[in-house]
């Protein structure tokens, strides 16, 4: 699929996709006979995974580390797993912190509602 279709499918601008390609997150993108990018379903799956990692707060530098390991093949499975497990722990800690913030907000809102009743 061409850049426009791929961009619309994954929800990223062509500029972002070219940036990801330049930095090494999207490598080995196929080209058609005219030299235009020709994305595959594997590219869609990969970019969706990158988006998920980014949405969960993984820094692009860590995502790039993961991508470099992925490009090296199956001999890096354990390193990739370690990277994801570390991110999982960071994400769990972040969620816990956000839940604590939510609880504090709910308590404050409850106090304001009590003042309106009295």
Automatic annotation (TrEMBL):
InterPro entries: DNA-bd_dom_put_sf, MerR-type_HTH_dom, MerR_fam
GO MF entry, a single one: DNA-binding transcription factor activity
One Pfam family recorded for the sequence: MerR_1
TM ranges: none
Domain HTH merR-type positions: 1-69
CDD domains for the chain: HTH_YyaN
Name this protein carries in UniProt: MerR family transcriptional regulator
Species of the source: Shewanella hanedai (Alteromonas hanedai)
Taxonomic lineage: Bacteria, Pseudomonadati, Pseudomonadota, Gammaproteobacteria, Alteromonadales
């Amino acid at each position: 699929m061409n850049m426009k279709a791929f961009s619309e499918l994954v929800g990223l601008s062509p500029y972002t996709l070219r940036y990801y390609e330049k930095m090494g997150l999207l490598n080995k993108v196929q080209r058609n006979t005219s030299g235009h990018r020709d994305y595959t379903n594997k590219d869609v799956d990969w970019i969706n995974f990158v988006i998920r990692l980014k949405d969960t707060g993984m820094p692009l530098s860590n995502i790039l580390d993961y991508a470099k390991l992925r490009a090296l093949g199956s001999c890096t499975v354990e390193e990739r797993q370690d990277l994801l497990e570390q991110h999982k722990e960071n994400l769990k800690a972040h969620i816990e912190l956000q839940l604590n913030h939510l609880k504090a907000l709910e308590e404050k809102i409850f106090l304001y509602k009590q003042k309106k009743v009295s």
